[in-house]
Amino acid sequence: MHKELPHYHGEGQETLLIREQLSHVDDFQMVADILKQLSDTTRIRIFWLLCHCEECVLNISAMLEMSSPAVSHHLRPLKNSGLIVCRREGKEVYYRAADTSQSRLLHQIIEQVMEITCLNQKGTSHGKRTGKNQK
C-alpha cells in the first residue's frame, strides 16, 4: 500500500497507476542505459549513419575521419545495448541500426532535434538537404 501524498489534489486511480509505474526502477534504468549510449557525439553520429546504411568499420572510420580502433570502441556499447546489429560476410563485419522500436524512436528523436536546431540561414535543415531515409 502506498503512503498518502502530503497534499491531496483530487488524485484518483491515475495517481495510483503512476505511482505503481514509478516503483519499477529497473524499467527506468533500462531507459537511462539506452540514452547513455547516445550521450556521446561520436556515438550519435555512428548510430545516425547506421540508421541510413549498413557499413563496415573501415568505411565508418573514413566517413567520420577516425581510426578504426576508435570506431570499434564506440560500436561495442551500441551493439551491447541492442541499438545496432552486425553480420559477418567473410572477413568483413557490417553494422546497421537494429530494427527495433527503440532504435527507430531514437533515430526519429535525433533527426527531429537536428531539424529543430540545425537550421541554416536559408531555413533549410540538414535533414532536408541530405534527404531522410527513415526506416
Q: Determine the N-to-C terminus distance.
A: 44 Å
SS strand fraction: 5-15%
Silhouette: elongated
Rg for CA atoms: 20 Å
Give the neighbour order of strands across the main sheet.
1-3-2
N-to-C order of helices and strands: HHHEHHEEHH
Q: Give the integer mean of the pLDDT values.
A: 84
Which regions are unreliable across 5 or more consecutive residues at pLDDT < 50? 125-135
Could you give the topology of this structure?
Layout lengths: L12 H10 L2 H13 L3 H12 L2 E2 H8 L3 H13 L3 E6 L2 E6 L3 H17 L8 H5 L5
Antiparallel strand pairs: 1-3, 2-3
Structure overview:
- There is one protein chain.
- Strands 1-3-2 form a three-stranded antiparallel sheet.
- It starts with 12 loop residues before the first helix and ends in a 5-residue tail after the last helix.
- 58% of the residues lie in helices and 10% in strands.
- The chain is mostly helical and 135 residues long.
In a few lines, what is going on in this structure?
It contains 7 helices and 3 strands, in the order H-H-H-E-H-H-E-E-H-H. It is mostly helical. A 3-stranded antiparallel beta sheet has the order 1-3-2.
